[in-house]
Amino acid sequence: MHIHNLKDFAAGLLYILLGLGAMTFIGEGELGTLAQMGPLYFPKIVGAGLALTGTAVLLKSLRLGAADADNADRLNLHAWRPMPVLVILGSAVIFALTLLPFGFLLSAFLTVFASTLAHPSFAWKRSVLLAAGLTALTALIFVYGMGLSVTLLPPAFDLI
Question: Does the keyword Transmembrane helix apply (predicted)?
Answer without folding.
Answer: yes
